TrEMBL record:
Superkingdom to which the source organism belongs: Archaea
Organism annotation: Candidatus Methanocrinis alkalitolerans
Residues annotated as domain TNase-like: 1-113
InterPro entries: SNase_OB-fold_sf, Staphylococal_nuclease_OB-fold
Annotated Pfam families: SNase
Protein name: Thermonuclease family protein
PROSITE patterns for the chain: TNASE_3
Length: 113
């Protein structure tokens, strides 16, 4: 993962811009937006990020891949849902768009609503 644009958007070299599915981080002109970006950078920059890319809409109207990102837990090696982590850390809220295949309800009871 090469560049974090904001808390919910980042660039992958050779692939393109990725928008995390069904979550929304604050905009970059707010302190919370900068904090969300900093959080995403700390977790994602230079790391191997596994992407589950939406195969319904494929790309959104801004030309971004819509995806759930998974990162490897350094201790256990198991995959952690970064979309969920962003929400559970308070840096984003769930916004369930119906035009993609993802359902935040599948990410765990804490996000069910
Ligand atoms: Ca946003
Ligand atoms: Ca959805």
């Amino acid at each position: 993962m090469t560049k974090v644009v904001d808390g919910d958007t980042f660039d992958v070299e050779g692939f393109g811009r990725v928008r995390l599915a069904d979550v929304d981080a604050p905009e970059m002109d707010t302190p919370a937006g900068k904090a969300a970006k900093f959080f995403a950078e700390a977790w994602l920059l230079g790391e191997i990020v596994h992407l589950d890319v939406d195969d319904l809409g494929v790309k959104d109207r801004y030309g971004r891949w819509v995806a759930v990102a998974y990162i490897e837990d350094p201790d256990t090696g198991s995959l952690v849902n970064f979309n969920r982590l962003l929400v559970s850390s308070g840096h984003a809220v769930v916004k369930d768009f119906r035009d993609n295949k993802f359902d935040p309800g599948d990410w765990g009871p804490a996000l069910r609503r």
